[in-house]
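Thread amino acids onto this structure.
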């Protein structure tokens, strides 16, 4: 069999552990080679080292791509995003419940159409790769064809993606709602066709408590119990109007989280988007089960949902992941997500360090999503998903980065000033799948 092998020479950054919230990263957490070599072979990382050390081991004639002056990190991971909402980004003037009714639901209706779903899947993946995101946990629409389209497009590119069909059996327009049995039947068919195929995984996707009956939530929990290799994604405590509605709809639950607990939806592979309006006791219950909250700062600011309390979550031992939540979010870029997270943190007196931010986008998200065996680090044996960042992408960024005294400062400048121009290349499954200039 033919081996496909090459080396990238660049500054390399990866994490082996959580750097903590200090100004300096915790000892042993950062892997950094100012002049490094990343040797990739057949879709995996074969070796990583100082370039000078690696050069001794390289076979004669191997291709070496010279990216000196650029910084390679693991590919970014987006723990919560709706591909079907790409085209309603930047829809004016509503908070969550009106935004869903006025913009989101009408848009998602379009994904009953196979051609539309195919086309938007390709557009969405192009945009993700343009901003350096190589893995995401994705909401499709309630139409199975929207999931087939997304998984097929991801598989053609060899991407590691989690996704699922929205389950929603009430409080949405006809044409978007399913029913308990139909929703389960479609979900089981999709799991059979896609879960564990190549780099794809299925995430059970009840939209949120208000749009599912108790029977639908229970049926979803039953599937999760029979196959603990499945993921689950939903929304939790994003908006105060939503909270009031949930307490009316589920009078038998003490709080919003208990609605999900009672149906068995809270586990180590469960991601709850937002979790802004929680108390410490609820955070503790989520932590106990190993679940994670997806912090979606640009969405929380855009929809006026509130300021996520990141430190309260971490004090409770609760995993926090970083997410764009497009179309509520205003930017697909992981760098833009970190910038918004920093801004939310400032308003809460808990500014996000660049160390914590870049760890979060890479190994932190990978761990919380149970994907860290394969992605999230630059290390031998890991899948070759990474991003080549250009600190001189724009004249302004070049000026700012030229003044940086430390790697931490450069990372912070990238997270505040970076965007799609900062992403010179995105590699996934060992192949360059996006190049800024070409
Ligand atoms: N809650 C229920 N559905 C949605 C959605 O599509 N986006 C966001 N941000 N919150 C939700
Ligand atoms: Zn969402």
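Threaded sequence (438 positions):
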């Amino acid at each position: 069999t033919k081996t496909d092998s090459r080396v990238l020479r660049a500054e390399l950054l990866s994490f082996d552990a959580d750097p903590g919230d200090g100004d300096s990263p915790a000892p042993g957490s950062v892997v950094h080679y100012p002049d490094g070599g990343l040797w990739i072979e057949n879709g995996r990382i074969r070796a990583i080292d100082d370039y000078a050390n690696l050069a001794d081991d390289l076979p004669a004639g191997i291709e070496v791509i010279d990216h000196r002056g650029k910084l390679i990190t693991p590919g970014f991971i987006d723990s919560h995003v709706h591909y079907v909402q790409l085209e309603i980004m930047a829809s004016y003037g509503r908070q969550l419940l009106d935004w869903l009714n006025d913009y989101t639901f009408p848009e998602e209706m379009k994904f009953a159409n196979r051609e539309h779903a195919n086309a938007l899947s390709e557009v969405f993946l192009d945009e993700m790769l343009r901003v350096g995101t190589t893995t995401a946990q994705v909401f499709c629409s309630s139409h199975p064809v929207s999931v087939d389209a997304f998984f097929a497009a991801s598989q053609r590119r060899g991407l590691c993606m989690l996704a699922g069909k929205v389950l929603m059996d009430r409080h949405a327009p006809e044409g978007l709602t399913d029913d308990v049995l139909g929703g389960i039947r479609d979900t089981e068919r999709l799991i059979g066709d896609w879960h564990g195929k190549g780099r794809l995984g299925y995430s059970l996707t009840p939209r949120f408590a208000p749009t599912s009956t108790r029977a639908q939530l229970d049926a979803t929990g039953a599937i999760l119990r029979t196959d603990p290799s499945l993921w689950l994604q939903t929304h939790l405590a994003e908006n105060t109007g939503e909270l009031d509605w949930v307490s009316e709809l589920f009078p038998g639950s003490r709080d919003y989280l208990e609605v999900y607990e009672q149906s068995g939806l809270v586990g180590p592979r469960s991601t709850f988007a937002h979790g802004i309006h929680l108390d410490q006791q609820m955070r503790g219950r989520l932590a106990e089960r190993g679940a994670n909250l997806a912090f979606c700062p640009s969405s929380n600011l855009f929809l006026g949902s509130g300021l996520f309390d990141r430190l309260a979550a971490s004090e409770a031992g609760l995993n926090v992941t970083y997410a764009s939540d497009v179309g509520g979010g205003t930017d697909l870029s992981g760098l833009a997500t970190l910038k918004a997270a920093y801004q939310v943190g400032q308003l809460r007196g808990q500014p996000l360090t660049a160390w914590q931010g870049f760890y979060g986008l890479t190994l932190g998200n990978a761990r919380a999503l149970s994907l860290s065996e394969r992605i999230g680090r630059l290390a031998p044996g890991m899948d070759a998903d990474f991003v080549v960042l250009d600190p001189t992408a724009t004249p302004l960024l070049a000026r700012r980065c030229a003044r940086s005294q430390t790697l931490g400062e450069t990372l912070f400048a990238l997270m505040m000033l970076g965007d799609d121009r900062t992403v010179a290349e995105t590699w996934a499954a060992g192949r360059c799948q996006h190049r800024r200039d070409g």
